[in-house]
Amino acid sequence: MEKAKLTYNGMTHEMPVLVGTEGEKGIDISKLRQVMNLITLDVGYQNTGSCTSSITFIDGDLGILRYRGIPIEELAENGSFSEVAYLLIYGNLPNKAEQQLFSQRLTQNSMIHEEMMRFFDGFPPTAHPMAILATMVNSMSVYYTDYFTEDFQADTFDLMAASLISRIRTIAAYSYKHSIGHPHVYPKRDLKYASNFLYMMFDSPVNPYVPDPDIERALSILLILHADHEQNCSTSTVRLVGSSMANLYASICAGICALWGPLHGGANQKVIEMLDEINKKNLSIKNCIDSAKDKNSKFRLFGFGHRVYKNYDPRAKILKQYCETIFKKYYYDDPLLAIAMELEEAALKDSFFIERKLYPNVDFYSGILYRMIGIPTNMFTVMFAIGRLPGMIAQWKEMHDSVPHKIGRPRQIYTGSNLRHYVPLDER
Ligand code: SDX
To answer: What pLDDT, in 10s, does the model give residues 306-320?
Structure first.
């Protein structure tokens, strides 16, 4: 075991250095406060690991992403979303029997309780679908009580996981139908995951949904690419909330809320709004790049930059290629793709972006593909949540499987007032 030494105030503390299976190294500081009465401070956890994990590996410098050791490129090329979800949660790709049981569970749990449907009557049609999603997911704990447990039990976990993965799709589609004043469409038992979602989204009594294998594949690829990303903001939220022994639904609800932020999962909606504004106002690419570099300007190049990737986000690379391929095949033209590519080309030549290693991230091209599929812009982050759900569930399970189980409770450095006393109102 390698060691690291910290010397301070005449004391030296030796700390073990953990080496991961891909050679990553971390100093275990778990005894630091006890031995040296010191804590570390790392705003934004830029250098701090919260756990060990065997789910997802990212090499930010090389632009590598693997789920349970399998490269994202191979999963996007060959996998289905349900088998990737199984891989993340249970550690291996399912065999035929496991896949069949998992698919059955997804089918059996695809409808939402009729009493939950009444929730939609309470939401205004303009309600943001992320607000609806978080509300409905948290409410699942009061409707699906037959296999609901606060703590982690393997058999109930399997059903709660399948219930969430299947129903999140139904809730999302219903929120769209509610927003356009159309009747909800019930899921079909003979449709696969992505197809069933698109059916619930776009079928209507007057316009039957016409399945398109290419579009359904495009959605599956989007969901696979979003399925997990190790300890990002929202997944860390799921782990932290779950560490208090809050139930799975409550923990996922918290993760959905964290994902909503425009610096995180909400960026895909911001990217399209940014590209749309450039297109509508015919803004110059050079001016946009200059504004993105100007600290005083409000303009930020959404879809660019990443805490971990200091090279091209492999997901963005796959999405960019897929957009070009499928747009050619369908003779589909979206001016926003050309603008995105021009922005990327200009940024990647600019020293400000080069010095800071800012590259397109998963959100830069995903919205352009969602647009082609027909997903409304305000649902893009909901799509991110649907894709990311298996990863959140897998990380929640891994946290519960970890020994010892510790509630997450960071420390702080206090910088407020020193001791002072209460002063009565008439003396202030
Ligand atoms: C996701 O963590 C994950 O894995 C997330 C995710 C996942 O799958 O879960 O990958 C999904 O959230 C992708 C990121 C989506 N967000 C955006 O596209 C929003 C735009 N990007 C930035 O806000 C930013 O890059 C972050 C939030 C993504 C990362 O922030 P960091 O790591 O805290 O970096 P930073 O803000 O400290 O930036 C470092 C420098 C700064 O300049 P200086 O102070 O050094 O002069 O880079 C600049 C920043 O101003 N910078 C940008 C920029 N991103 C960073 N400048 C212009 N445009 C940008 N997009």
So the answer is: 999 999 999 999 999
Burial of 124 (0-12, 13-18, 19+ CB in 10 A): exposed
The domain spans of the chain are: 3-64, 72-259, 267-373
Report helix, strand or coil for 96. Answer: helix
What's the mean per-residue pLDDT of the chain?
96
- Taking the model in full, what pTM does it have? 0.97
- Out of 50, 65, 300, give the residue to mutate to test ligand 1, the one with the largest number of ligand atoms within 8 Å of its CB: 300
Domain 267-373: CATH architecture, name and number where available: Orthogonal Bundle (1.10)
CATH number of 72-259: 1.10.580.10
Position in ligand 1 atom list of the atom nearest CA 361: 13
Angle among Cα 404, 406, 410 to the nearest 5 degrees reads 140
Confidence class of residue 404 from pLDDT cuts 50, 70 and 90?
Answer: confident
Verify whether residue 306 is a known catalytic residue. Answer: yes
Give the model's pLDDT for residue 248.
95
Count CB neighbours of 374 within 10 A: 11
Q: Please tell me whether residue 2 adopts helix, strand or coil conformation.
A: strand
Ligand 1 pocket, residues with Cβ under 6 angstroms: 44, 229, 232, 263-264, 267, 292, 300-308, 356, 358, 361-363
Going by alpha carbons, the residue nearest to atom 58 of ligand 1 is 301
Atom 54 of ligand 1, nearest CA residue:
305
**Which distant-in-sequence residues (6+ apart) come within 8 Å of 139 by Cβ?**
116, 119, 249
C-beta separation of 360 from 303 below 8 A: yes
378 C-beta neighbours (distance < 10 Å), count? 18
Taking domain 3-64, whether its CATH number is 2.60.40 is answered by: no
Whether 184 is catalytic is no
Percent of the chain with pLDDT strictly greater than 90: 95
Residue 308 tokens read as 């971990």
Residue whose C-alpha is closest to residue 220's, from 382, 85, 393: 85
| Total residue length of the chain | 428
Contacts of 253 (CB under 8 A, 6+ apart): 134, 135, 137, 138
Q: Which residue pairs from 116-122 have beta carbons closer than 8 angstroms and sit at least 24 positions apart in sequence?
A: 116/140, 116/143, 117/174, 117/184, 120/174, 120/175, 120/178, 120/184
Is-contact 123 132, C-beta < 8 A?
yes
What pLDDT digit, counting tens, does each position of 180-230 carry?
Answer: 999 999 999 999 999 999 999 999 999 999 999 999 999 999 999 999 999
